[in-house]
Automatic annotation (TrEMBL):
GO-annotated biological processes: cell division; cell wall organization; peptidoglycan biosynthetic process; regulation of cell shape
Binding site for UDP-N-acetyl-alpha-D-muramoyl-L-alanyl-D-glutamate: 37, 163-164, 190, 196, 198
Residues bound to ATP: 122-128
One term of GO molecular function: magnesium ion binding
Protein name in the entry: UDP-N-acetylmuramoyl-L-alanyl-D-glutamate--2,6-diaminopimelate ligase
Annotated HAMAP family: MurE
InterPro entries attached to this UniProt entry: Mur-like_cat_sf (IPR036565), Mur_ligase_C (IPR004101), Mur_ligase_C_dom_sf (IPR036615), Mur_ligase_cen (IPR013221), Mur_ligase_N (IPR000713), MurE/MurF_N (IPR035911), UDP-N-AcMur-Glu-dNH2Pim_ligase (IPR005761)
Entry-annotated residues carrying N6-carboxylysine: 230
Domain Mur ligase central: 120-321
Post-translational modification: Carboxylation is probably crucial for Mg(2+) binding and, consequently, for the gamma-phosphate positioning of ATP.
Binding positions for meso-2,6-diaminopimelate per the UniProt entry: 394, 418-421, 466, 470
Length: 500
């Protein structure tokens, strides 16, 4: 298993071999594809993309100075940089949607992807589903990876900066995996990634939809725009043989099913008590749950060593995607007892000497906070303490709703900081407390965790929400080392006099 980011750069080749036609027929050799002018080197194709802050065409002069051999942009970009372009020998490719063209070009440039690929979208559950899909494939004997918020994981493993990387990083990763013998890959499709067409060049055998609730309205502005971005995933599966796996428990599930069916895709439905894959019973204990489910009305049982009822929904979604990728359903169901906790998702981080437990979870939306706390309840005999905070420079409307979700579902709530970024942490905490007025406020996250752990009596549990697998606290532009799992073990060690 590698933990290194691949650095592969394909051999230079003429622009025309990338399926691109320049104005005037120029056909220079291309040495690299780049979206950031600061990374342009000799012979690179610079994609000058329309941005959310600025048009990338403003950086065309810098890219030309650094030796760009070709510029890919839209009409607005060509106009912005008309003068420097007219004075240069660089090839100019003007297209309507340069983000989409870049995605196809990156696919051709890197030239390989694992044979079988699936993707999953939804507000919550993408990392969990993609991880379970990969774990099932591996249990069935395939070389597999999942790509998303927790990086590239599985047969081949390293961190990624984004949930859905931009096409150059994405296709570099897919080609490196394919060359290393990875045959199966499950990826997360974020709404930003879909909107920016980052995965248009990927050949998808199947796509899944988990759920749709509030997040990212800072970027998408309205729920409808956000939904349309997510629905866009179903335009990207293979036209004739593609399969859609849809969670019918979600209020927008029926609409998503209609969109997928309307595009001629076979649909596998998943749901509690309804659907092709139907969850009909769950029995919880301290280490996981037993589930009863049916596949086309045939009943099955499985042991899941996973905390949280929602993880059973994610597991069934994963089963649907693996079945859609061509595996025998019975063989898929036989692997389920082997599934392991997804990093930072309902992860048991520490246990106190009195038996109380501390869990770390990535709940960072109102629905996820409510779901995670409710899901922990049946595994716990005593009180439930929740630590919650909201990130800076992100959808501000979700802050009080996250506080309220904690207030409505936990016995004790502690409000703390979670990546304040450029914002005033006290103002973010105040917004979260707007929904949880009785919450205890402790700005310093390490202290909040220590206070939460100190409260635990026999049978109690603490759920630390928001940062999951993250290993840093972003304050201003600094990333300070911070890991909830480590902090939880340290707090237990300090309070119970153990060594970590
Ligand atoms: C908001 C957002 O998604 N922005 C993405 C977008 O950049 P932008 O349109 O905002 O860029 P901009 O600052 O306006 O600049 C426009 C263009 O000029 C280029 N530029 C800029 C400066 C310079 O000196 N030279 C230069 O060439 C930029 O590379 C960009 O292509 O296009 C860029 C190139 O493809 C992306 O790298 C960038 O992702 C940024 C880094 C980002 O952080 N995105 C996050 C919000 C994101 O995508 N998150 C999702 C969702 C996670 C979730 O579900 O929770 C994810 O998939 O990770
Ligand atoms: N099916 C689900 N329904 C509701 N909440 C869920 C579901 N699955 C996961 N969650 C909650 O969302 C959190 C994030 O889960 P996960 O990382 O799998 O989702 P995600 O969609 O990948 O999120 P992100 O892209 O922001 O990383 C979990 O820690 C849990 O609190
Ligand atoms: N992909 C999400 C993760 C949020 C995680 C949380 N810890 C925060 O910083 O708000 C985002 O960037 O909005």
């Amino acid at each position: 298993m590698s933990r290194n980011t691949p650095q592969d750069r394909p051999d230079p080749r003429p622009l025309s071999q990338l399926g691109l036609t320049a104005r005037g027929g120029a056909d220079p050799m291309i040495s690299d594809l780049v979206v950031d002018s600061r990374r342009v080197g000799d012979g690179a194709l610079f994609a000058a993309l329309p941005g959310s802050q600025v048009h990338g065409a403003n950086f065309i002069p810098a890219a030309l100075q650094q030796g760009a051999a070709a510029i890919l942009t839209d009409a607005a970009g060509a106009e912005i940089a008309a003068r420097p372009l007219s004075e240069s020998h660089a090839a100019l490719i003007v297209v309507e949607d340069p983000r989409q063209v870049l995605a196809y070009t990156a696919a051709l440039w890197f030239g390989a992807q694992p044979q079988t690929m699936v993707a999953v979208t939804g507000t919550n559950g993408k990392t969990s589903v993609a991880t379970f899909v990969r774990q099932i494939w591996m249990a069935l004997g395939h070389e597999a990876v999942n790509l998303g918020t927790t990086g590239v994981e599985g047969a081949w493993s390293y961190p990624l900066a984004h949930t859905t990387p931009e096409p150059i990083t994405l296709h570099r990763a897919l080609a490196a995996a394919a060359k290393a013998g990875v045959t199966h890959a499950a990826m997360e499709a974020s709404s930003h990634g879909l909107d920016q067409r980052r995965l248009d060049g990927v050949q998808l055998a199947a796509a899944g939809f988990t759920n749709f609730t509030q997040d990212h309205l800072d970027y998408h502005h309205t729920f409808e725009e956000y939904f349309a971005a997510k629905a866009g995933l179903f335009r990207r599966v293979l036209p004739d043989e593609g399969v859609a796996v849809i969670n019918m428990d979600d209020a927008r599930g029926a609409e998503m099913r209609a969109i997928a069916a309307g595009r001629g895709q076979e649909v596998i439905t998943v749901g509690r008590g309804l659907g092709d894959l139907s969850l009909v019973g769950q029995r919880y204990d301290g280490t996981g749950q037993d589930i009863r489910f049916s596949w086309h009305d045939r009943p099955f049982m499985a042991r899941l060593n996973l905390i949280g009822g929602f993880q059973a929904e994610n597991v069934l979604m994963a089963c649907g995607l693996v079945i859609a990728s061509g595996e025998e359903p019975e063989r898929v169901f036989e692997t389920l007892h082997e599934l392991t906790t997804v990093r930072g998702r309902m992860q048991l981080a520490a246990t106190r000497e009195n038996g109380a437990s501390v869990f770390v979870d990535y709940a960072h939306t109102p629905d996820a906070v409510a779901t995670a706390i409710k899901a922990l309840r049946p595994h716990v005999l005593g009180r439930l303490v929740a630590i919650v905070g909201a990130g800076g420079d992100r959808d501000a409307g979700k802050r009080p709703l996250m506080g309220q979700a904690a207030h409505d579902n936990a016995d004790v709530v502690i409000v703390t900081d979670d990546n304040p970024r450029s914002e005033d942490p006290a103002a973010i905490r105040a917004a979260v407390k707007g929904g949880a007025p009785e919450a205890i406020e402790v700005g310093d996250r390490a202290e909040a965790i220590l206070r939460g752990v100190a409260m635990l009596e026999p049978g109690d549990a603490l759920l630390i929400c928001g940062k999951g697998h993250e290993t840093g606290q972003v304050v201003g532009s600094d990333v300070l080392p911070f890991d909830d799992v480590e902090q939880a073990s340290m707090a237990v060690a300090v309070l119970d006099g153990k060594t970590v």
